[in-house]
Amino acid sequence: LPECFNCPYGASYFGPYAEPIPGGPTTARLSALARELAIPVLVGGSIPERTPEGRLHNTALVFDRTGALVATHRKAHLFDVDVPGGIRFVESETLSPGDQVTTFPTPWGTAGLGICYDVRFPHLASIMVERDGARLLIYPAAFNTTTGPLHWELLLRSRAVDFGCWVMACSPSRVPGATYQAFGHSMIVSPWGTVVATCEAGPSLVRATIDM
Questions:
Q1: What is the pLDDT of residues 18-75, one digit of tens each?
Q2: CA dist 62 → 16, 42, 52, 71, 143 (Å)
Q3: Which of 4, 75, 153, 165 is catalytic?
């Protein structure tokens, strides 16, 4: 699932849609789905998280086939950008950054987890791959129509080639009339930098067989 999949993507929505992790309705539903469908690994995109101290984070969730929450990742690099004539978006006005590197075991090997803007920072991917042994990097994301056409595929293929690993990135589909226009084009990239599966901007299912 993509970044902030349970709410519109915008700073004004993060607070009203935020929920505790665990204990919130989205966590409970994803846990139930993983258990009911016996999904070996369910990466449930990210949602706005409210901590007991009242801080807001952009947090991704990972569940195993029993429905147990086995990993969470708080977006470390917040998206603060002002492109003249393009887009202005300042996540740090409402969100707090995470400070942890997140990897988790799967039946096929270790996977690393980042969120959207995290993909621009190769040092984070380096730690996940070279220190923690990740063979797959997963990025729930919501690139926009300004940076997406220029950087989305470039960055995903770069991380794959940089570290010789698989990369999966999931984007929301584009919603006409929404205040934030997602680029779409969810993608799976091989360690050689080959795009083995992708889609356009509309609702779609992207899948591929990979060899980790």
A1: 999 999 999 999 999 999 999 999 998 999 999 999 999 999 999 999 999 999 999 9
A2: 23, 6, 21, 5, 21
A3: 75
